[in-house]
Design a protein that fits this description.
The protein is of the alpha/beta class. Helices cover 43% and strands 12% of the residues. The strands form seven sheets. A seven-stranded mixed sheet has the order 6-15-14-13-11-7-8, sandwiched between helices. A five-stranded parallel sheet has the order 2-1-3-4-5, with helices on both faces. Helix 18 links the parallel strand 7 and strand 8. Helix 1 packs antiparallel against helix 4 and helix 26 crosses helix 30. The longest helix has 41 residues.
Length: 923
Amino acid sequence: MSKEAKPAQKRIDQFFSGPGARADDWRDLVEAAKTWARVGNRTAYDAALADLSITEEFHGYPGPHLMAALREAAAAGDGASSFALATRIAQALATRSFRQHAGDWSPKDDGNGDAPELVPPAFGAHSARRPYFETLIVTGVSSSQWPALAAEWRKLRRPVDAFIYEPVIVGSLEDAFCATMLNPNIGAVIINEGFGLRSRHDAPVLRSIMVSAGLNDETDASALRLAQIIKRVRPELDLYMISNRDVEELAGNPEADVVRRIFYSVEELLELHLSILEGIQDRYDTPFFDNLKKYAQRPIGTFHALPIARGKSIFKSDWIRDMGEFYGPNLFLAESSATTGGLDSMLEPTGNIKKAQEKAARALGADRVFFVTNGTSTSNKMAVQALLAPGDIAIVDRNCHKSHHYGMVLAGAQPLYVEAFPMTEYSMYGAVPLKTIKQALLGAKADGRLDRVKMVDLTNCTFDGHIYNTRRVMEECLAIKPDLIFLWDEAWFGFARFSPFLRRRTGLGAANEIEAWMRHPKSVEAYEKQQAELGKNPSEEALLKTRLIPDPRQIRLRVYQTNSTHKSMSAIRQGSMLSVKDVEFHTVEQQFKEAVFTHASTSPNQQLIASLDISRRQMELEGYGLVANAIEIAFAIRQAVNNNPLISKYFRILGADAMVPAQYRQSGFTDFLAPGVNWANTLKSLNEDEFCLDPTRMTLVCGMAGYDGTQFKGILANEYNIQVNKTSRNSVLVQSNINNTRSDVAHLVRVLAEIAGEIDRGLAQGGANARKVFEARVTSLMKDVPDLPNFSHFHPSFRGDAGTKTNEGDIRSGFYAAYDVAGCEHIRLNDPEIDRRLKAGPELVSANFVIPYPPGFPIMVPGQVITQETIDFMRKLDVKEIHGYDAKEGLKLVRTEALAKLGRPKPSAQPKPSAQPKLKAAS
C-alpha cells in the first residue's frame, strides 16, 4: 500500500507492501539516521529501526547479525556509525550486491568483517556468478539457538555448489506464513516439527484469517498443515519436512504430496542441503535453451534451407554486416531449421521441447502446455478448431479478440454472442455478467439444444483489466451443463499465476480449486442440500438468482487457458503458451495435433522457443517477487497521479469503483488505495466479487486535459519517449509489468506534471476565449460520447437451425457470402440510402468484420443485421483505424437477392427480444 493508505500502526500482515515498500522503509531509516547524526534528534530513527527489526526477521540479508549491529550502535548513541551502516545496508539491498560480495555482510566497511562464521570463504570464492536465494527454516527450537543453527547450515556451503543460499529461521506457523509472503527471495522451505502457531508480533488481520481457515489453537500448528498452506500461496516453492516420528507412514500419506522429500530427524543434513540445491536446479534447467546453447558452440556444416545459419552470409558481407554486429554472433550460431542434433520438432516434440513444455505445465498448474510461436491469436484459433465442430454452439463474449471470431469461422461453429456491461462514459466495455451467461445456457436448455453448446469462451482479464470470478463462473455453468468446455483467453494475465492474490482469478487457478473441492466429501453434501432447497423443477428466475452448486460426481472438468507469454513475462514477441487441464483430453488429442499442424509454422524461430523456456525458468524462481513489484509500481503510479494537485486537475487513473459497477462488487470494495483498505478486505473482494480490477492495468483519463486517447498516446510516444497500451475516446491504458522500475514511475509522473503545467499556463495566458474552447473540447470528449452498440442478431438466412431463445448464427456462411462479389454491395456511411433502409428495409446485413481501433472489438460481424445504434456509433467515430471498412467504398453488405438464395428459415427461428436483455451503461 502507499504510505497514506497504511494504518498508523504498521503490521506484518500488510502483504501488498512488496519489495519497493521494503526499500522505502530502508530509505526512511537512512534519512532518520542522517537527521540524528546532523541535528541530534534520534526519535524518528529509533521508531524506524523498531519497525524494521520486525519485518527484517523474515529476510536473510541483512540478517540478525547486521540488525544487531544497528541496534548496538543506536544503544551506544553513535549517530554517525548508525548512519554509515544503515546507508551501506540500504545500498547493498538496492544494488543486490550482497548476493555476491562477502563484504556486504560485515558491520565494518573494510570488507574484512568480524563474523567469519557468517560468511565462510565459500561465499566469495566461486569464480563464476552464482544465483542467490534464501531458505526458510521453520523450527521449534528456542530462538537463542537460532544463530548456532544458522552457522551449521552455512558450513554446508561448497565451492562446487551451483547456487548459494542463506537460512532464514522462524519459530511459528504465522511467522512462516509471513516470511513466505513478505520475502520473494525464498526458494525452499524446511519444516521441522514442534513449532508454535502464533507469531511473536502483532498480526490481528492475519489471525482473523487463520481463524477463518480453522487454525484456532496450537494443535493446528502441524508440519503438514503448514506445508499445505505454503504450497497454496507459493506453489513454486520446494518444501522439505523433517520428522522425528514414523516418516514411512507420513511419506505414504496422500496429503503429503505437497512435500518434495521427507527426512528423518537431522541425520542427513548434507543430504538435505544437496536436495535443496537439486530442487532449485530442477527449476533452473531449461531443456531447450540449454541444448540450443550447446548446439551454437558446435562446428556444424549446414546444408539446409537457412542461409543465415552460422552467420557466414552475414559477417562476410560488406552490405549487411551491420545486422550481425547489431544482433551479435550467437543469434546466427543458434539458427537452424534442423530438428535433430540436440534440437527438437515443434510439431511433434519428443525431446527437449517436450521436456520444456512439461516444466511449463508444472509452473502454470496445467496437465500439459503447448508452446506457440505465432502469438496467442494462433493459440486461440488452435483451441477453437480442436474443440469445436461445424454446428457446435459456443457462448462467446462479443468483445473478445478477433482471433476467437475467426476461429469460429474456421471451425464452422456457431457463436452465441453475449454482451459485456458497457462503460459508455469511457467508450469501453467491461466483462460479461454471469447472469447473462447463465441465461444463454438456460435458453439453450429450454430449446432442447443444450447438448450443442460445447464451450464458454471468455477474455480474462479484459484489455482494460476486468477479471472474472473464474471459479464461480465455471461452477455455476457446470451446474447447468457438467461437461462444458471453458476457454479462458488470458493473453494479458499470464503473470497472475505467480501472485497468490490473483491466481485464484485465473482459469487454471480456479480449475485446481474446483478439482480439490470435488474430492472433498462435503461437496456432494452441499450439492444435495441445494437441490432440496430448489425443488424438482426450479424456475428460470430462481436459477438465475441462485449461486448454483454443480454435482461433483457429474463434472467433467475441461479448462483451456491461453497466455501471451510475451505480454507479461520475458519472452520474445509472439511467444505464447496454450495450457490444458481437461479430463477428456484423450478424446481430442488427435484433433489438437491437427490444429497444431494447421496453424503452427514448420519453421519456428529457435530463439522464440528458447525465450518461452527461459521465461518459465524466471517466473518459477523469481516470478513471485517480480509480480509483487509490478503491482507495487502500479500502486505508486495511481498514488502519484491521483494525489498530485496539479496532475489530478487534468488526469486521473480510474479506481475499481469507477471501472466495476457496484452491483458486481458485492463485498463493497471500492479501490486498492481507498482509506482503510488493507490486505484482508482486498482478499475478501478477490474471493467474493463478481468482477475485480487487475491493479497493474491503469485507465488514465486524458479527456479532462482536452486530449483524445489516440492523440495523447502519440504525444507521449513522439515527444516524451513513453509508450502506453490501448486507447479509448478519452483515455489511454497504462500497464505496469515485471520490467518496470520506480524510475519509470518518476519519468511518467514528471511528464504528466509538465503537460498539466503547460495546460495551466495556456489557459491562464489565453484568456476567456481559450478557456471556452478548452471546456468545449473537454465536454465533447467526456460527455458527448456515442452509445456503445450491442450485437443485434444474425440475419435469418444464417439461422437456419437456430433455436427460439438464443441468438447464435452460422458465421462461417456469413463470412463466405462476402466471397460472392456479385452478391455484395457497398453503401457509403452517410448515404441517405442507409437511413431509408433502416426505416423501411430491406435489412442491412454486414458482409465482413468491422473493427474500429479503439475500442478494438467487432461492432459488425459477417451475417449480422446492422441497426440504427451501430450506424450512429460508426458516424460518431473519429478514429483513423477501422479494420474491414473502407470509407471510400462504404459498408460492405450482402445483397438482398443473395440472402434470398441462402434460404429463409421459419419465422420462429428469430430470437425473442427478451433472449438477452440490453445492459444499462455503468455510471
